[in-house]
Amino acid sequence: MSEKIKAIKDFLFENILEVASVYGSDKAKEEIGTFALNQALEVGGGMALDLVSNSIPAIGPAIANFKTNKRITNTEKLLSELNDRHEELSQLFQRQTENNKKILDNIFGMIFEKTANMWQEEKIKYIVTGYSQLLKLENPSFDVAYLYFDTLDKLTVLDISALKLSYQASTLEDIGGHNNYEELLTTFDINIDQYIAIRENLNRLGLMENDYDNKLVKDIKNLQIAIDDIRSSTESVIKVLSGARNAKIKSLSSKSKVRLQAKDKLKISKFGRDFIRFFIENNSSN
Fold it and tell me: Core-most of 68, 127, 146, 157, by most CB within 10 Å?
């Protein structure tokens, strides 16, 4: 057995990273596979598999086995992603202060548990990308990290693809997503009503916003300017008709012509753009 795995580091992230390195390089699954996964699960602390009560004959063990296999699959995927970026992540972590390492370790513990319970393993690559972004910060925050990773946890791969499409439409940046919503509908075999429902869900999570509110404020302001312009012109006409000395008719300006812009339309929010840059911008798959 490799001494790398046996060595226990000071921080959870360092332990998992070492496990990932050996697990990815040796490829001797029959020797280190089970050990590596057990180490990864045990080092996290408080992450024991929560088995269904044995009071449910047959169903309990079946569910427990399903959940166990799912966690192992997810952990293997996480180890693979960490191994692919081992050197980069190790260097970034070592550059942090001891206090920051403690914060980042707590964040990784939270991430590890979310990863183990994740239904779609395709999202694990985003988990690793997001954590690498945290390793670059001078003042990482557990609360902010939790907001981002908890939001990711609530999204499906389809949700993420829809958000990426909105990001590209807003910024004109190519991040490897779909070119238009028709492509997305075809890829995921959904209809337009389902697509609208997805966007509304992203809106509820704060990743999108309704452009109507912002445009409505501007419309009201422009209407007020137009009304003042019309009132001023009308008053000048009244003065001329009443024979007031030196009175002149004031012509209406272009401000009196108002085109209302407010429409009920969703667009990606600032949080949505930050979310994409945090998790997804460097990933090129849909």
Answer: 127
